[in-house]
Amino acid sequence: MTHDTGPSGCYCCGVNRRQFLQTGCAACVGAAGVLSLPAGARALVDPAPVRLRIVYALHAEQQAVPDWPNLGFDFRPVMERTTRALTEGCPECTFEVSMAKDAEETAAIVAADEGTGIDGYVVCQLNCWNRIVQTLAETGKPVLYSDFTYAGSGGFLVYTAAFLRAGTPNVGFVSSSRLEDLVAAARCFEPVVQSGRSGNFASAVTRVRRQGTAAVGDLTCLADPVTTLDPSRTLREMRRAPILAVRDQQARTAEPIMGIPVEFIPFAEVNAAWEDADRAAAAEIADRWASDAMVVRGVSRETLETSAAMYLGMKEVLGRHGARAITINCLGGFYGGHIHAYPCLGFHELNNEGLIGACECDLRSTSTMVAVNALTGGRPGYISDPVLDTARRRIIYAHCVATNRVFGPDGPVNPFEILTHSEDRQGASVRSILPAGYMTTSLEFMPERQEVLLHAGKAVANDPDDRACRTKLVVEPIGDFEKLFTMWDRWGWHRVTFYGDLREPLAGLADALGYTVVRET
């Protein structure tokens, strides 16, 4: 059977046959020497199959907790497909299969492998934050690290960036929606193991990954002239846009962020405002949402009305404090019984109005939304958990809250759906079908380092995949796609995306703040 799906030459290096013969490959010189022997002699020195262990990083075979990709997700077909693809695509290797949910279970796997001839590991990140790959990397054996798209992506990006920053030579990674790309990278094990040079593994996989990354597409964008304020006026507007942060049951005043006032208020204050909200007004808002949405699926009428009451409650609290932005520890509040409705639809409505509703009590992203909202005269930001896919050369911004007025409160609307919150299939959230063809700018301000991280890209599609968060804006980045893997350990997972090419006005605002612009691509 032939498994040759790559170029003639060297799979792990991506060179053609002529280049291979002329220049060789540090990882493959030993294998090349064997192949040059007569057939009879070669039979005496053919190496034994490379022994690898696949370790699936996940909570359980069927997910019993709310997390990416979602409650109840059955990983067994995913693991079966992956194991079969690797076994059939890498006949020079044999595979053992394990699962692990934490470092302790991984350490037990490593201890059991001692003296058994395991040559390396394939780690598939199926849930986001299970710390598995670090323990396996410490063995010094080659480790191939892969993301299951819309499932393990948060931990995968953060952990991969840390390996890149440390220059870990024995860890290569794959971030692709195509199983074929994982198989192509796994073919790097055999020459690297046979040469005894595990330190060449990361660079070998990098060459394969770059070779498999899709080519740059048409980056021509639709016209979208953005009127922005000058930096000094933007700073004045930011100071007039206080943020309310709802993290726990504590109330306190915090230090301003980039001049933006910040006040912490307790869950109890928001919950009381929700309880006191006019239920007749909430019913009218629920009617409008149900009428305007393309689809309402899995969400009861009662949930729509409680979500509308949460919107009214949040708006009342904003008015009481003279604030323009609110960010809530939504999951902690909901699961802890401190609030009784998800704020997702309320955030959607606030952002459509030119106010700011922001997820997860993320003050850095909220202050970024305030700053750019002021800079652009009202354009809303979209907080997301990004995912990288080399197969399409795309970054996908995924979250369960999104505006459907990306050009501002007076701009055109785009379609949206009302669905359950993705991870736990409860409450009500938004899938916004965001407009394609326009330039976007994604960024984060980091006051503690006085930096702003940003990249730009063309919105090309929306991905309806049921895994992970509901809204998924697909963007082709401008610049070096590989560089996008490098910043997540220092900046965290969230990014805030705005429509418009805002690179130049953001540079001016950064100068006024005394910040450095860090280009992410």
Give a verbal description of the structure.
The chain is α/β, with parallel strands linked by helices. The chain has two domains: 9-212, Rossmann fold, CATH 3.40.50.2300; 231-519, no CATH class. Helices cover 37% and strands 23% of the residues. It has a six-stranded antiparallel beta barrel with strand order 13-14-19-18-17-20. Strands 4-3-5-6-7 form a five-stranded parallel beta sheet, with helices on both faces. A five-stranded mixed beta sheet has the order 9-10-8-11-12, with helices on both faces. Strand 9 and strand 10 form a beta hairpin. Helix 8 (179-186) packs antiparallel against helix 10 (201-212).
Number of continuous helical runs? 19
- Termini gap: 41 Å
Structure summary, number of beta strands? 21
> What structural class do helix, strand and pairing data support?
alpha/beta
Bin the helical content. 25-40%
Contiguous runs where pLDDT drops below 50 for at least 5 residues? 1-44
Q: Which strand order does the major sheet show?
A: 13-14-19-18-17-20
Which terms would index this structure?
521 residues, alpha/beta, Rossmann fold, 2 domains, six-stranded antiparallel β-barrel, five-stranded parallel sheet, globular, disordered N terminus
Q: What's this, in brief?
A:
This protein is α/β, with parallel strands linked by helices.
Helix-strand layout with pairing:
Elements: E1 9-10, E2 15-16, H1 17-23, H2 29-35, H3 39-45, E3 50-57, H4 76-89, E4 93-100, H5 103-113, E5 120-125, H6 133-137, E6 143-147, H7 153-166, E7 171-174, H8 179-186, H9 189-195, H10 201-212, H11 231-239, E8 243-246, E9 252-257, E10 260-264, H12 267-276, H13 279-292, H14 301-321, E11 325-328, H15 330-335, H16 344-353, E12 356-359, H17 363-376, E13 382-389, E14 394-399, E15 416-421, E16 426-432, E17 439-446, E18 451-462, E19 471-477, H18 488-491, E20 495-499, H19 503-513, E21 516-519
Parallel strand pairs: 3-4, 3-5, 5-6, 6-7, 8-10, 8-11, 11-12, 18-21
Antiparallel strand pairs: 1-2, 9-10, 13-14, 13-20, 14-19, 15-16, 17-18, 17-20, 18-19
